[in-house]
């Protein structure tokens, strides 16, 4: 799963307004950010196997540190503690929300991955395998993204229509990128996949900061005009 991971980030922003949206965008991809770094360091491994699944050619045969159950829990706690140290708010507002956002990545991966998520070490691998059926996996991914964005728009609304234009334009861009990545933007080398992945995570987080800032600015301008 790629853009679908951002659905929980949008929803978490509505639950905890004190956490910046860009932080949540990093949180939901934190496991893959670390995975990209470990692949670049030749610690975790993958193979590019054309036709491995209908959705992508990634044979993720060794990733116990970032996508193993215990590794995922550890990364969730670490990033949650980091957010708690840097942001102002209660533990429930910051740590619980951010750590949950990080762990949502593993839960969503469980749905789409073939059995490559280790429970212990690099063994007892699980995965429901929805990637094998692109006609199901792609709509589920897009629906997850849109559902999270709807929660964000509904429960953390902009005071003007322009704020929602920014949000839904961004969501539309993400959907377009997901469709392109699924059918035409397949990786050709492990290093290329790792490099492209971490670049996209940073770009998406930067754009999330811009969207969130635009919506806050619109809200402030609306309040000033109302007063």
How would you sum up this structure, described in words?
By secondary structure, the protein is mainly alpha-helical. The protein has one domain (3-226). The protein is built from 8 helices and 4 strands, in the order αααββααββααα. It has helices at 6-15, 21-28, 30-40, 69-86, 92-112, 134-155, 161-183, 190-226, and strands at 45-48, 58-62, 117-120, 123-126. The strands form 2 sheets. The chain has a two-stranded antiparallel ribbon. α1 runs antiparallel to α5, α3 runs antiparallel to α8 (190-226) and α7 packs antiparallel against α8. The radius of gyration is 18 Å and the shape is globular. It starts with 5 loop residues before the first helix and ends with a helix.
Give the number of domains.
Answer: 1
Q: What does the largest sheet look like?
A: 2 strands, antiparallel
- Tell me the span between the first and last alpha carbons: 45 Å
Strand arrangement across the biggest beta sheet: 1-2
Strand content: 5-15%
Pattern of helices and strands: HHHEEHHEEHHH
In DSSP terms (H or I, runs of 4 or more residues), the helix count works out at 8
Find the structural class using helix and strand composition.
Answer: mainly alpha
Describe the global form.
globular
Q: What share of the residues lie within helices?
A: 55-70%
Can you describe this structure in just a few lines?
The protein has about 230 residues and is mostly helical. The chain is built from eight helices and four strands, in the order H-H-H-E-E-H-H-E-E-H-H-H.
